[in-house]
Amino acid sequence: MARHRKGAPVSGWVCLDKPEGLGSTQAVTQVRRAFDAQKAGHAGTLDPLASGVLPIALGEATKTVAFLMDADKTYRFTIAWGVSTASFDREGDVTAESAVRPTPDLVAMALTNFVGEIEQIPPDFSAVKVNGSRAYELARQGVEMDLAPRRVQIHAARLTGGADRDHVDIEVECGKGTYIRAMVRDLAAVLGACAHVSALRRTRVGAFTEERAVGLEFIRHLCDTGAPLKALLPVETPLDDIPAMAVTTEDAFRLTQGRSIVLLPRQVETLRAALSASRTVSALHGGRIVALCEMRAGRLSPTRVFHLA
Known about the structure:
By secondary structure, this protein is an alpha+beta fold. The protein has 3 domains: 12-69 and 207-237, 2-Layer Sandwich (Pseudouridine synthase), CATH 3.30.2350; 73-198, Pseudouridine synthase (2-Layer Sandwich); 242-305, Archaeosine Trna-guanine Transglycosylase, Chain: A, domain 4 (Roll), CATH 2.30.130. It has 8 helices and 18 strands. It has helices spanning 24-35, 66-69, 104-111, 135-140, 180-191, 216-224, 249-256, 265-274; strands spanning 12-18, 40-42, 51-58, 73-81, 83-85, 94-97, 116-120, 129-130, 133-134, 150-161, 167-174, 195-205, 208-209, 244-246, 261-262, 280-285, 288-296, 299-305. The strands form 4 sheets. Strands 1, 2, 3, 4, 7, 10, 11, 12 and 13 form a 9-stranded mixed beta sheet that branches. The chain has a 5-stranded mixed beta sheet with strand order 14-16-17-18-15, covered by helices on one side. The chain is globular.
């Protein structure tokens, strides 16, 4: 006999504007409780120090989390010159100090070296695994590490301002796996300065933007007043880049049963023209997602089935 899940069968995405001081896991817990949702998860950890966009999946939306993990992101952050810390943010222990204050022109020029595909060594205070342990756990114990560099993609990096000569504001558009703290560490090294991140805000994760983000208090208010759906985005929100195809009622039923469906020649041609390296197609019925499928040999075979009320 199947165990009954506690909570309501709520499905959809919440574009949370996470406040500073709250961990990503804590944020997910608070959103899940507000909706009394049976299941919840997030796409892309945001450090407690940081604020901004944290996409949270509820119910059936958790089946699409993987499609958001590779999404491009945008960050706005402030660099504080003069002090380096162990974690390269304002919460770390001070490791070095310097009187060097790079000018905005020098910073803008140095930033050009970080645009494109670059190698980046993750900071010691990161979630990278080292012999089964998280790097930040070992760093807190004073263990010295030699983390391997990773290839990351920086699409754009621009200077946006600065309150005074001790601070500079930067905006970065980047691919998955990019560490802003590592970028600040490396930028400071190029400029011969000491620095750390004093403020960090994520403004975009794929289709989830700052403009769509809502705060925890607003979410609680909507849930308390019986209007929770106003805070929910559709389950298929992260699937904007995946070709979609409408299916008949009969085919929708077959897909939800885990069975493949046969495509018409014209449907195959249309999907082939829209597909890139992936063979993934989202099947829709009545404007709602039924299944994520793989197209092979003129058929759609379901890989993820959605049960939406």
